[in-house]
Design a protein that fits this description.
A hairpin with a 3-residue loop joins strand 7 and strand 8 (160-166). The protein has 6 helices and 11 strands. The chain has a 6-stranded antiparallel barrel with strand order 6-7-8-11-10-9. The protein has 2 domains: 5-130, 3-Layer(aba) Sandwich (Rossmann fold); 134-235, Thrombin, subunit H. The two termini are 21 Å apart. It is α/β, with parallel strands linked by helices. Helix content is 30%, strand content 33%.
Length: 239
């Protein structure tokens, strides 16, 4: 996976550094961010895209189980993998972690091999998910409540799409609801697929930025007709 971005949240500086150095050594190109408490973690997760979270269960200001429960109920963020870390080996704690949706449980103190194996397992699942995306050529229109943004699609999957839109005076906001309309070069077309903007960035660093890269996550609870239409549309993209 390119540019794997990981958030390490642990109250002990030496643990954070150990995880950071280990992952940088075993996953070339990984981007690491760290936190020493649970303060503002939820806002951070809503404003920054992470591929994986390693989180201390006993974290101050936001307990790991509470974060997990919030994350798994979040309409947009619920599929972000999270590895819970703790010195608590009690069977009930392990069961609770699984119940709340942890992807793995790292028992402290952990060794390098154990850390790498747990993260590798999660990354492999992410890579399989990425492999289901299709490179697409065509146009997109993202409709918000106030305006329409036109551009070109880059790739898509059943979970969402990424593309490039022309900049306007007013940009869409992160987590803003949109309806996506897609028309491929072969004229296959689909309209009205509901989703949320989950990421935006400038195409280049020029002073006069004319295009914006965007990522849209589709709403999982699409009405049945739209869900079926999306599945049929994606089947046209399969090799």
């Amino acid at each position: 996976m390119n540019k794997l971005k990981i958030l390490i949240a642990d109250s002990t500086a030496s643990v954070r550094q150990f995880i950071k150095y280990t992952l940088e050594d075993h996953f070339p190109g990984v981007v690491i961010e760290m936190a020493n408490s649970g303060k503002n973690i939820q806002q951070r997760l809503e404003s920054t895209r992470y591929d994986l979270i390693l989180y201390e269960k006993e974290m101050s200001m936001l307990d790991g189980n509470i974060l997990l429960e919030w994350l798994r109920k979040h309409e947009i963020l619920k599929k972000i993998p999270l590895i819970l870390m703790s010195a608590d080996s009690d069977e009930e704690s392990l069961k609770k972690a699984v119940q709340f949706g942890a992807d793995a449980y790292l028992l402290k103190p952990f060794k390098i091999d154990n850390l790498v194996n747990k993260v590798t397992s999660v990354v492999n699942r992410l890579n399989r998910r990425k492999a289901e995306r299709y490179v697409v050529e065509g146009g997109i229109i993202l409709k918000t409540n106030s305006q329409n943004f036109r551009g070109n699609i880059v790739d898509m999957a059943k979970e969402g799409l990424s593309g490039v839109i022309d900049r306007q005076d007013q940009l869409p906001h992160i987590l803003e609801k949109v309806e996506a309309c897609i028309e491929l070069g072969n004229k296959h077309k689909i309209e009205g697929i509901a989703g949320f903007i989950i990421r935006m960035e400038a195409v280049n660093s020029a002073h006069d930025i004319k295009q914006i890269k965007v990522a849209v996550k589709f709403i999982e609870e699409l009405i049945p007709d739209k869900k079926k239409e999306l599945e049929q549309f994606l089947s046209l993209l399969a090799p």
